[in-house]
Amino acid sequence: MSDNAVLRLREQRLAQSTRPFLARGSRAIRCQTCLLPTRNCICATREIHQAASRFCLVMFDTEPMKPSNTGRLIADVLPDTQAFLWSRTQTDPALLEAIADPDRQAYVVFPASFATPPRQVFTEVPAGSKPPLFIMLDGTWNEARKMFRKSPYLDNLPVFSLDVSASSGYILREASRPELHCTVEVAAALLEKAGDFEASAGLSRHFTHFRTQYLAGKPHHPVHQLTAKNEENL
Questions:
Q1: What is the reported pTM?
Q2: Segment 196-206, tens digit of pLDDT
Q3: What is the C-alpha separation between 36 and 215, in angstroms, rounded?
């Protein structure tokens, strides 16, 4: 197993579970590192990159156990990535320690419309500032909003808001709103904003390969049907 914070969190969450977690496609024999069916494994193509930016994933309940989760891809490419399970009542001291790191500026990555004055909102990394710690709330949109509202230790941190105008290329799960992007897409955009261009490009490549191999293992996914229809019309 690679040194991946999300996979370690997955093991922790599985150990806490009182019954087996059955994701879609649970009958498939999966690689225990990339969580794809073994015939679609992407571990051999994984690239490691260094970046001035760091990511801290705060993950909702079963999110680390889902093969479709893309926060894991960030930890694949950037080994300094940290990951924690979210709890409304108990906060991991290591999470608080990460947020309080005096050598980094922590930002909560979330839409600016949810930040009420006088909370600071940034859309660019300020010149000359400390290297960023991007705190990402990883779950469905409703889960992320809950984490944003009910995590008082985040309330005094500035928000970093991205205007990602392009439509999402995720298509592994149905988004509640078309403008929403998956965790790894946002992370790649944040790396680019912070000037970590090589890491951004590497993460985007890793996501593209993951998405291709994930869908290759799901021949009945609507994207395959759409592709087949398009080919018939050529």
A1: 0.85
A2: 999 999 999 99
A3: 10
